[in-house]
Amino acid sequence: MLKEAVMHINQHWLTSAVPIPSPNCDPRPDPQDISLLVIHCISLPPGEFGGDFISQLFCNRLDANAHPYFSEIHQLKVSAHLLIRRTGQIVQYVPFDQRAWHAGQSSYQGRARCNDFSIGIELEGIETTPYTDQQYQQLAEVIKLLLANYPSLSPQRITGHSDIAPERKTDPGESFNWQRLQGLLEVF
Q: 167 catalytic, yes or no?
């Protein structure tokens, strides 16, 4: 069970998160334009949970020989702002005022380059396995805090990776319960 921690944002870092700074980020074109939240999922190796491989990937330290799949992806330069593990633990890789490299080629409501104006949150998981209660709870708390701290964000501007890159991506997938998240946010 996770110890209850009060969440705050200090200099664009979530104080209750484990900070693991990624080099895979850069300045946003407009640091005030944080107006979209993108939910993703990731597991490394695919379908396996726990371990340090996601952090290694986001910090360019993934050993290509540690798993056959890693030889295909170890050279990628990617990151997200946050990872919410299945236990509910939160890891932060990129401060919110910086551009994380999570969306790739993408478009939202006709506007391209979603990394420029979005925050990316990875859920440890796969598209076909239900996410945990701890993940939904932590995700809702994080979103409430982001909405309170970044005025350009709104509950109507929360989307999945599959919605901004539909030809390339399927996450967070059929197992993500959008209604459940909405219900948790309605108490906000």
A: no
